[in-house]
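Dear support,

I submitted the protein below through the web form. The confirmation email said the job was done, but the results page showed an empty box. After a refresh the structure appeared. I'm attaching both so you can tell me whether what I see now is the final result or a partial one.
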Amino acid sequence: MDLQSDTSAVIDDENLALLNSDNGSQVSIRGRSTMSWIMAAGLIVNAAMGAGLLNIAKSYDDAGGIFISSILHGIVVLLVLGAYAILFVCCDPSTSSYETFVLMKCGKIWQRICSVCIILYMYGLSITFFIIIGDQLDRFLSYMDPLFCRHWYFDRRFTIPITSLLFIFPLCFSKTIKFLQIPSMLGVLAIIYVVIIVPIEYVKNKSSDVIVKTKPDSWTDVFLVLPTMCFCYQAHVNAVPVFVSLRTRADCIKATLVSTIVLILSYCLVAVCGYLTFGVKVDHDILMSYHPISSVVLIAIIMVAVKTYTAYPVNLFCGRTAIDSLSNETSTSLIATDIRQSTKRRILIVCLWFFSTLVGAIYLPNISVAIHYLGALAASFIFIFPGLCLYFHVEQNWVNSWGNIISISIGIFYVAIGVFVTVLTLLQSLITDISGKERSTTKTC
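What the results page shows now:
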């Protein structure tokens, strides 16, 4: 369901995605085209808004209610806007991808670290997709038969693998993903639909016995909202090629502001209305909280499931090309001359990726667990790498001035914030997993 990698669907050939330091600028020039700032804003919204929308109401509950969560929400948004500013200040037309951007500013070592983070992020996102599929299948089956759990063939440990093998696995081997652009747009409709129905259902079904938190259970719980916030606003990996396709810096500012406003309104509507609807009983996937399931909610469940089926191959494609970019043997000329070896490599990566993420999704209890870890990686894309790029960008053209001193300080601040959020998020996730606190309020098979 998440469109983190949908902008990659414009790639016409797998070879174009296997960028390295030697051919990165050539690919960039070859694929250079301009777009309107409205289209750019749409791409950023598509990249950022996804699975986090389903989980954000639960994160508000974890952090202690609407008031404290909204304050942290505002702080994160300001930092996210600052990170976008760093990206379009430091980018130049030869930048073809986020990894290339890090390579040009920070060097080969940081570029490889960035590629590893992207692989881990896409891998975790793949697990999240499977969990979402299982959640929506459970809700659909419970609508058809409230006692569906008595049938072994309706158990999510069976339905997730079978439906994924039928609808996802055959799409994962293609050299290109251009044919997935149209079905991937279903994600936009699914997201818009969810954003609309949550406030409508709140107005229609207001209840006076809903219990909501007004403060966190512990002061450390305040930070539990950070992983989801970072996950919700992480579109920076996709923003680099989008920014270099715009004509002027003014267009970058317009696209950033408009997309951020759309994201803020959408997330706030779902978080606040969803939390006020269910209170402390809100589920990790907000669509699983609706009892009984109405026809409008059922449509949302089906749309989210269909979108997730089409989004997974796009996500695996990006992970596969990131793996190839780390290999010392990978080069455009090698792939072009040894098609058989390239095909074997692609099949091996797809099979290992698909089945390992499938196993992980079957045993993870809900999307909140996956999003907490993904939020730590998202923090590195939002804070750490932009901060490092700004630091090295200023250092490469150092002139003693207050402007450069302030820029260096901002870069260090972003790196420090990123390290803090990443480490804190990982520690909280590990403690939560060890203590076994993550449980879904909606019981399924």
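Response: this is the final, complete result; the empty box was a page-load delay. Confidence is low (pLDDT under 50) at residues 1-31, 332-337.
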